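Per your request, structure below.
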């Protein structure tokens, strides 16, 4: 990579950081004028809409979800698409996240995909803006948007642990009906 490419990448990362800082200050402004609950609701709503758009783009590019008859293989492809959604919305330089299939569901059961987030720049920016107290993470709203965009209905979507609460990592559970073909929606 040339020095110009390295410099351009550094400028891009700095632009991301500045937009996240803007977002944190915007959140703080809404919270101070209209209350923490309003700021949390508006933030979650906006991120869910962005996540839906990202999921739809990945779904269009990747094609229909697989229905191979092998729940583990099909959930692995869905897991890969969730990772791609995360990479599109949050650059790797600003987060440390991974997903894994913890339970393939088997025989018509539900599969479990777990997202583990060890670093989240949004939390850092909200903390730096002085708004961490009362901040509600919109992670489940983001995952709901991704899932809807990908054509998957979540039967469970919750945080088991959260960096915001001082945990070492966020552990987010996304449970989907298996096989995936029974979980897809007809909405577009």
């Amino acid at each position: 990579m040339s020095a110009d490419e390295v410099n351009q990448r550094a400028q891009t990362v700095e632009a991301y950081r500045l937009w996240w800082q803007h977002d944190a200050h915007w959140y703080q402004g809404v919270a101070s004028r209209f209350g923490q609950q309003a700021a949390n609701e508006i933030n979650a709503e906006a991120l869910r809409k962005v996540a839906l758009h990202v999921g739809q783009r990945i779904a269009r590019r990747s094609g229909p979800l697989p229905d191979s008859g092998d729940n583990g293989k099909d959930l692995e492809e869905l897991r890969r698409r969730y990772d791609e959604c995360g990479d599109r919305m949050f650059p790797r330089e600003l987060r440390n996240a991974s997903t894994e299939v913890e339970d393939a569901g088997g025989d018509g059961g539900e599969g479990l995909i777990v997202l583990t987030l060890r670093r989240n720049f949004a939390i850092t920016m909200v903390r730096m803006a002085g708004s961490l107290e009362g901040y509600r993470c919109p992670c489940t709203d983001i995952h709901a948007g991704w899932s809807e965009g990908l054509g998957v209905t979540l039967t469970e979507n919750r945080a088991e642990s959260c960096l915001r609460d001082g945990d070492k990592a966020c552990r987010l559970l996304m449970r989907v009906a298996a096989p995936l073909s029974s979980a897809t929606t007809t909405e577009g």
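The chain has a mean pLDDT of 86.

Regards,
D.
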